[in-house]
Amino acid sequence: MPLKSTITASLSSFAEPVRALIGVAGVALGVLLVLAPLSTQQIAVVTGIGLALAGIAAALLPTLDGFTRVSARVFGAVLFVLGTIIAVWPAGGAPWISFVVGASLIGHGVLQTVQVIRHGGDQRATSVIIALASIVFGVVALAWPVLTLTFFRLGVGAWFVFFGLQLVMAALYSGGRDPERPRGRVARWSRTIGASLALILAVAVALGSNWALGGVPLPQPGAFYAAPASVPAEPGKLIRSEQLREGVPRGADAWRILYTTTNADGSPAISSGTIVAPTARGDEPLPLLSVAHGTTGVAAKCAPSLSATPFADGAGAALEQLVVDNGWAAVTSDYIGLGTAGAHPYLIGEAEARNVLDAARAAREFSEVTVTNETVVWGHSQGGQGALWTGQLAASYAPDVTVQGVAAFAPAADLFGLAEVNKNDAVGKTVSAYIAATWSELYPQLNLESQLTPGSARGVEKIQNLCFNGKDVLGAILHGTQVPNQIFPDSLLDGEFGDLLRAQTPVGPFPAPVLVAQGSADPLVRPEQQQRWVEERCGAGAEIDYREFAGLDHLTLVAAESPLTPQLVEWTLARAAGEPATPNCDARP
């Protein structure tokens, strides 16, 4: 036998048991990932070892020509080096791991496809199925740059088990026989069934990922939201209206409106919004509720007036009771940039307040409903901040609008504090992405786009096009989980950007009684932050009625069954009736 053939045969006989041992190790590592209580860095180490072993196995693939041999060894070497880097440098982070895992899975699938095309074999279809499953799993891994612990363990761990069993089975069924000799029927069918199940699972996971991350098609603003050729220069002027048919409470009528307002810098702008009033209404002016809505997103399609449920935001059940049962009208501003053109001034208090006050002015010009010059202001979350700013700004910006009371539910009163505390949470990253996307336009001097943490830009780009209502909430938050680090580096919070965040804190004075409602279990707007803001405002002489609700979080606080709902209706009716305020600053420790 020629020397070269002897060496090749010896290497082949050596390679098969090594690949079998690697298969056993792969199964063990996969089980470890799935079952063991590993830290993030320990997961990285186990993953790196597994990828390095997979690289060795790829380099030892049985080959029939020089091209495939070189391809397998190059791919194996690359996989080994990358796996080793991850194992010895676990702090490289989940995006790096997911990229390597995804690229490796895709590379494994492509390499196997090349082998099938060049060599054929008795199970060509099965091999192609396995290759397709590997490629699909790779694409899924790339779509989730920061995998949750469970997904990471189940996904990568399952692949290690699958890959390891494949190597072990190959060794068991190939011992000493001609690699081109047909396999037994049981072995062929078991491999085909296993490969088909893997492909079905991969496609299911890919479709599920697309469903979860992709959001849903939402109606885009149409001609109604376009600025007319001639726009009144005065803010608060009604431009047009049209009746709403969808999502209107039973016993009420509703309309979409377009009106003039101003940006925070005083420049003219237009905004859209909604008006809802009881169907049974006489000629007497109706008391008016002005609603500052919470976060719905920053894209134009995220306007509440475009939603299928335009009146569900915040304390929607209390609003319905006030309108249908107590004969009030309510007006909600979409804010600039939601529905209408321009950058949405997300969490910029003065801009939100101008939009809310001008919506109240526009409601007075609406011919279908007659309302008073007085109004009570409500707002939840972002809208809570907007409601407080509406009270703070009313006397100077809109002295013709009398604010009788301000109710803020879990308001984002301390924006800088929220940015610090929630910077690593999924929802906090989502909110930060909305800020990054809008403030980049509104404050170009900050140059925010170039100062985000590494790996954040792609997440910001994805999140800014998803709304924070309906199924889009899931997509927005899941994309938030996939941002590898906090959106804004701490150094940015220490500079002008941090100063602008602090400037969004409403400090008063407030022209009317203020109700602040807070859930004790709120993970986004923390009760201790809210308490600190209330204490500071009380110390400055504001009349604050602070109510904290045990066990309620950010959303259950304003749910229909929340104890806040009847209290809010009662408090609002009292403000319109001119009853004495109910501050409890003196009762606080």
UniProtKB/TrEMBL annotation:
The entry's keywords: Membrane, Transmembrane, Transmembrane helix
Top-rank lineage group of the source organism: Bacteria
Example GO BP: lipid catabolic process
GO molecular function terms noted in the UniProt entry: triacylglycerol lipase activity
Annotated transmembrane regions: 20-38, 44-63, 70-90, 96-114, 126-145, 151-173, 193-213
Descriptive protein name: Uncharacterized membrane protein HdeD (DUF308 family)
Taxonomic classification: Bacteria, Bacillati, Actinomycetota, Actinomycetes, Micrococcales
